[in-house]
Design a protein that fits this description.
Layout lengths: L1 H18 L5 H20 L6 H9 L11 H8 L3 H5 L12 H12 L4 H9 L1 H12 L6 H13 L7 H13 L5 H17 L3 H13 L7 H11 L4 H14 L5 H13 L5 H13 L6 H14 L4 H11 L8 H13 L5 H13 L6 H14 L6 H12 L8 H13 L5 H8 L1 H4 L8 H19 L11 H4 L12 H14 L9 E3 L3 E3 L2
Helix pairs in contact: 1-2, 1-3, 4-6, 6-8, 6-9, 8-10, 9-10, 9-11, 11-12, 11-13, 13-14, 13-15, 15-17, 17-18, 17-19, 19-20, 19-21, 21-23, 23-26, 24-26
Length: about 525
């Protein structure tokens, strides 16, 4: 707006010079009067402008047009060695204000795969001359070239205190308000990681503010996904805005963009139900093909966010079944774990998992078997060929069980208890006081979860294995912890307690107000 106003005033002043007499002082006074009158009437009545004014305004450009392609532009594009670019500085070429920046951008591209040459380049006298040239002309560099220049300087690993780098960063900060949103998106996509870890935190903060304020300017799905992946975790407000924009553009998302959005939400544990529902709807309705990697990532994201959408899960399972021969044992374990977290069992798919593990037994590691076993336990899934499967489990896990981490040992034996395949030796190893003491009275959430599984194992040894003679958890460890006395009891809780006491017939047969890990005071 300011540039347009300045241009308009200059055009009016030029016209006034043609109307005013020249040379004499009186002429100068008349010139001033005419100019003032012309400016005043033009500001109050746009229609009062003469046709000459309008033609002049149409012919006068507001910005300097981009220079036409020159021979040096082709030399920069075709250069294959840094030496060819540095020779352009002293070759008698006519370099305009963008050429220095373009040479630096091309240098970073050529050296992107040669990190050992970057240190030598920084010491080159011609490179220092190039930096000085760019710094002196940075105010004339075009917007698109400027943001690429900053990315290139970061890629060349210039020291943070380099004066030329600070000059470019400052110029970018001054221009943030004028940059198009696509330039802001390019900056955050290509430079956010460098700004956060090594370079200007102030520039990154201002960039995020502009992205937050101008989020309505996003017009395409690629931009919103790229910003969400690169900068969504840096700003809670920006992430919320991007989720709203995703809801608006989700129907235009490709399978890869759907995958990136879901994985980003899972990485940040953001359970945005409206967005997850919209993604699931388009995932089910659109017949686009999904690759193996996309299917595995989608299953992981749904499992991580505990978002159970039956139709989407059915689509994932149906698309995974034909791809089963191409899965590795690690991918099978990962997929089984994802569906287990969803508490969703597709019997044909899990039977295919078992057959795949049995066929690829030599390639299956102990870690893979542990993951699959825990997934089966969470879903209480017992395969059709369970004898063959558990024979493989005994063969691979038996010798290695004692060498696993203590928490993982508890997980494995707990899974065997759930699937009714635990043996006495395994119970004795886990319930040995020298083993379980580390988990009794634990305060961390992970250790408390492990202790809950120890209680399950202890109950299995007592109730499902009459021949088992010990050891067991101490009575003090299995006694229910009392809840807070000042906890308010609702009418429903009171009636439920009375009904349970009447059903059990004796207070010794049940424990009430037991503080559990997830639900506070519970009945057992």
């Amino acid at each position: 707006m300011a540039a347009h106003l300045v241009k308009r005033c200059s055009c009016l002043l030029r016209e006034a010079t043609h109307l005013a007499p020249a040379l004499a002082p009186v002429g100068q006074l008349q010139f001033a009067r005419v100019a003032h009158k012309t400016l005043t009437s033009s500001a109050t009545s746009p229609s009062s402008c003469s046709p000459n004014f309008l033609k002049l305004l149409e012919k006068e450009p507001v910005f300097t047009p981009y220079p036409e392609q020159q021979e040096v532009d082709q030399l920069i594009k075709k250069a294959t060695r840094p030496e060819e670019l540095l020779e352009l500085l002293g070759g008698g070429h006519s370099l305009h204000h963008n050429h220095g920046a373009l040479i630096l951008i091309q240098l970073s591209r050529l050296l992107s795969q040669k990190p050992q040459d970057k240190a030598l380049l920084l010491e080159d006298r011609r490179f220092q001359q190039l930096l000085h040239l760019v710094s002196s002309q940075v105010t004339s560099v075009w917007h698109g070239t400027l943001v690429k220049l900053l990315r290139s300087l970061y890629a060349l690993a210039l020291p943070k205190t380099t004066r030329e780098l600070q000059s470019v960063e400052q110029e970018v900060r001054w221009r943030l308000r004028r940059l198009k949103y696509k330039h802001l998106a390019f900056l955050v996509e290509s430079c956010a990681a460098s700004m956060q870890t090594r370079y200007s935190h102030e520039l990154l903060a201002e960039l995020l503010v502009h992205l937050e304020r101008r989020w309505t300017e996003i017009e395409d799905s690629r931009t919103v996904v790229a910003i969400m992946v690169k900068a969504g975790h840096l700003s809670e407000l920006l992430m919320t805005r991007l989720e709203d924009k995703c809801l608006e553009l989700v129907e235009h998302f490709s399978p890869e963009e759907l995958r990136k959005v879901l994985v980003t939400l899972a990485a940040q544990s953001r359970r945005s139900v409206p967005l997850l529902r919209a993604i699931s709807y388009h995932l089910v309705q659109k017949p686009f093909p999904l690759t193996k990697g996309t299917l595995l990532d989608l299953a992981y994201a749904y499992g991580r966010l505990s978002f159970h959408q039956t139709q989407a899960c059915q689509r994932l399972a149906a698309d995974l079944l034909p791809l089963m021969p191409s899965l590795t044992p690690g991918e099978v374990a990962r997929c089984a774990t994802s569906f287990a977290f969803l508490k969703w069992l597709n019997v044909p798919l899990f039977e295919a998992f078992v057959q795949h593990i049995l066929r690829r037994a030599p390639d299956v590691t102990v870690a893979h078997l542990c993951s699959v076993l825990l997934a089966f336990a969470r879903l209480n899934f017992r395969p059709e060929h369970e004898d063959q499967f558990f024979s493989l489990v005994r063969e691979r896990l038996g010798p290695a069980l004692a060498s696993l981490e203590p928490a993982l040992q508890v997980d494995v034996v707990w899974a065997l208890c759930v699937l009714q395949r635990v043996q006495e030796a395994e119970l004795q190893a886990i319930l040995d006081p020298r083993f379980h003491t580390r988990f009794v009275g634990a305060t961390s959430p992970k250790d408390r979860s492990t202790f809950q599984k120890l209680l399950h194992i202890n109950a299995t040894a007592q109730l499902e294995h009459p021949e088992y003679r010990g050891p067991l958890l101490p009575t003090t460890a299995t006694a229910p912890a009392p809840s807070a006395r000042d906890q308010k009891v609702t009418l429903l809780q009171q009636e439920l307690r009375e009904a349970l006491q009447a059903l059990l017939g004796s207070a010794n047969r049940g424990s009430f107000d037991v503080a559990t890990q997830r639900r506070g005071a519970a009945r057992r």
